Amino acid sequence: MQSFAHPAQLRHTPRFFLQRGRVRANFEVPERAGALLSALYRLGLPPTEPEAATPEALRSVHDGGYIDFLESAARGWAGLQERGEEAVANMHPSPEMLAQGATCPDAIIGRLGWYTADTACPIGPGTWEAAAGAAGAALAAADAVASHGGSAYALCRPPGHHAYAARAGGHCYINNSALAAQRLRDVGAARIAVFDIDAHHGNGTQGIFWDRGDVLTVSVHGDPSGYYPWYVGYAGETGAGAGAGCNLNLPLRQGSRDDAWLAAIDTGLEKLRDFAPEALVVPLGFDASEHEPLSFLGVTADGFSRAAEKLAALKLPTVLVQEGGYNVEVIGTLLERFLTSWGR
Question: Histone deacetylase domain location, by residue (predicted)?
Answer without folding.
Answer: 28-338
